[in-house]
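PROTEIN DATA CARD
Card holder: D-beta-hydroxybutyrate dehydrogenase, mitochondrial
Chain length: 132
Origin: Araneus ventricosus
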Amino acid sequence: CARGIGNALAKHLDSKGFHVFASCRDPNSLGAEDLRKSCSSRMQVFQLDAASDESVQKAVQFVKDNLGTCELWAIINNAGIQKGFLLELTSIQDFKDTLEVNALGPARVTKAFLPLLRRSRGRVINMESIIG
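Structure generated from the sequence above:
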């Protein structure tokens, strides 16, 4: 939610009247602050690191605690990183970190939120870019 299409989509959905849970790796980032300041009270910004099982479980609990009588209609997997551009200059650890977030992150988040999505017959939307 810090920048880019995730930030813009969160703002757009808020403007359409949706209750938006915007997850950010760093909930204190400028983009996260911008969402808090420029959106309605329906916007809830919280921390989620798609590479961390513990963080994802905390995010699920946060959403459960804040849904009230509403249901979760969808999750949008938009997290992505890009570490390095040239093969010979990119470490194996950087490749592992990129795969952890970009490939395993959406699976980890989706699996954790499935019970809420099944209850509402909700949807999973996966977004990717060339950069991450």
